[in-house]
Amino acid sequence: QVQLVESGGGLVQPGGSLRLSCAASGFTSGYYAIAWFRQAPGKEREGISCIRSSDSTTYYSDSVKGRFTISRDDAHNTVYLQMNSLKPEDTAIYYCAAARFIYYSNKYLDQTEYDYWGRGTRVTVSS
Asked: What pLDDT, on a 0 to 100 scale, did the predictor assign at position 28?
């Protein structure tokens, strides 16, 4: 069955960096896109970045643009999220998710478009 497993979370000081990994398995027909979402305490889940499998086109929310970079390693079936210049407001549980298909380009960071989810990894940004 399809599995997405996140790793790489932890405690980091403001201004620091972390790299999250999302290991994907069980996709017999591949996936259309993989995205990263996050949910901070008391807040709704937010889509922050996505990479399309066909051409590696990437999408970012305004909250992380210029600081986070999404990439993929097909040899290892892994998608990464490099997070730099971290801020306390980046503290959240980070989830990766995969979509079988997304029709509209403005839906790439919409959680309702995603079919498979990992269990999340916690990121805490604090001094």
From this structure: 75
How do the residues of the chain divide into helix, strand and coil, expressed in percent and rounded to 5? Answer: 10, 45, 45
Determine the number of helices (DSSP H) and then strands (DSSP E) in the chain.
0, 11
Strands 121-125 and 92-99: antiparallel
Give the whole-angstrom CA distance, residue 62 versus residue 32. 22
CB 105 within 8 A of CB 113: no
User: Quick one: average pLDDT of 95-111?
Assistant: 93
Alpha-carbon dihedral of residues 22, 90, 37, 73, nearest 10 degrees? -30
Mean pLDDT for all residues in the chain: 95
Where residue 42 falls (left for φ over 0; alpha for ψ -120 to 50; beta otherwise) is left
Identify the band that residue 79 occupies on the pLDDT scale cut at 50, 70 and 90.
very high
Looking at residue 93, its amino acid is: I
The DSSP bridge partners found for residue 5 are 23
